[in-house]
Fold these 3 entries.
Entry 1:
Amino acid sequence: MDVGVKKRLRKMSENRDFKLFVDDTREIPKGWMGARTVSDTLRFLHMFSPIAEISLDHDILFPQHGIDRYTMYAAENYTGVAYYIARMPEELRPKIIRIHSSNSGAAMTMCEIMGLNFDTTYKLYDPKNYE
C-alpha cells in the first residue's frame, strides 16, 4: 500500500466514517474503500476497527479461469469474514453491516454466523443504495 492510501485510510478511520465494500467483482462505490480478497478484508478490519460500515458479498468468482457454477460454490467465499466479525469484541465491530450478495441462501448463513437479522441486513446489490 502506498503512503497516500495509508494516510487516506488513517484519516477515514479516525473520523469514524470508514466504509468498506467487500466484493471481488463489483465496482467499488464512491466514498467507500474496497477489499477484493478475504485477506485484504481481515487486514482492514484489524487495522481500522471500529469502522462505520461494511457491505459484504459472499461468492468469490473466478470467471477468468472458466470455473463453472458447481465449482464456484465449492470455491473460496467471504464466510471467513463473517466469522471474524462474529468473534470481534462488540465495541470493535462495524457499526453498520450489510450483505449484498446475489446468493441469498449464503447471505442468510452469514447473518446467522454474525447473529444478525436477515431481513434488515440483507439487500440484493443495487448501486443506488451506495450513493
Entry 2:
Amino acid sequence: MKIFIAGLGSIGRRHFRNLLALGETDLVLLRTYRATLPDDALAGYPVETDLRTALQKHKPQAVIVANPTALHLEVALPAAEAGCTHWTGWIVYARLRRKAAAASWWVSSSATIRPSIRLAN
C-alpha cells in the first residue's frame, strides 16, 4: 500500500519512523520545507512539494495528515477526492464523512502507530 505523509514536523516524522519500523517502504512525503528535517534524512523516498501533483503522480491509497490541525482539510479533502483512505483526526473525519460517504476510513488521533494495527490488516 502506498502511503502519503503530508507534513514532516514532529508528528509526521514520528509516523515516518513508525512506518519504517513496521517494514513499510512504499512512502511518499509532502513537505513545505518549514520543518527543520534535513533532506538526507529522506533519501530514497519521493518528496513532493505540491499536494495535487503528488496525489496525481503517486496515487497513494492512504494519507497520514500530519500538518498543523488548522490545515488538515486542505490536505484531507483533495486526498478524499483522489480516492485515498485517511489517517486523520476525528473532527476532520466527521466533515469528510459527509463529503465522501462511500470511502473507507481509518481514523486516529495524534497517537503513535502501534504494531497491532499491522496485524489488523
Entry 3:
Amino acid sequence: MDVDARIPAALQALGPVADRDVCVLDGADGVLPGQLLALGGWVRAVGDASADTLAAIPDDRADVLVSGWTGFRPGTPEWDEQLGAARRVLRPDGRLLVVHDYGRDEVTGLFADPERAAERVSWSRPSGPFLGVGFRVRVLHCWWQWASLAEAVDMLTSGFGETGAAVAATMRRPRLAWKVAVYHLAMGPADALEATGAATGSPPKAGRTTRSAPRHAAPPAEQLAGA
C-alpha cells in the first residue's frame, strides 16, 4: 500500500541500510526485503520474530535489524527476550528498527477495535514501552491508495466486510490516510536497553565500541535469494 515507498526511505535514513548487513524479520513473504535490497543493503530475510528464529541468528551478525509489524510487540511474553536478542545479533553501533502502525488515522477504523487503537497510541507516548526504554519514533504519513473509488470499495468490502463498506462509503478519493511508526534504537557500549534493564537474558558484551566491517559472503541478490 505504500506506493510512495516512504517506509523503505525512512529505514534507509534511520539505518542506514545501504552497503550494510541487514536482517529483516517478518519479511520472508513481503516486499520489504526487496525494497531494502534495491537501496543497496546486504539483505537476509529470516522469517518471523519468534525465539527460534532469533536464536538462529549468530552474534554480531547485523548492522541493522528490521522488524515489520508483527514482532517486538510490547506487553507480549516475548518482548524482553526479543530486545535482548536484538542486542546480541547487532554489531556495536547497529540499529534496531521496528515498524508498526501508528494509529490515529483512517486505516485504524477498518479494524473496528478500540483496544487495538488505544494500544497503538500508548506505544508512542514518552513514558510508553518504546520511548521509555530509549527508542525514538519517526511517524510516516502514508496512504492506502487505489486506482479508482470502485476498486477501493471492492477491496475494502472484501477484506473488511461491513466495516470496510462503511469506511468506503465515506471516501471521496480512492485513498485512506495511513500513519506508520518506525521505532528506532541505536546500540552502543551502554545502550538504553542495558542501561534501563529492560531486556534480560543477554549479558553485556565486552568490547562493544566499534562496528565491524560488513561480513559479505555473497553479492546482494544472492544474499537475499539464499535467505
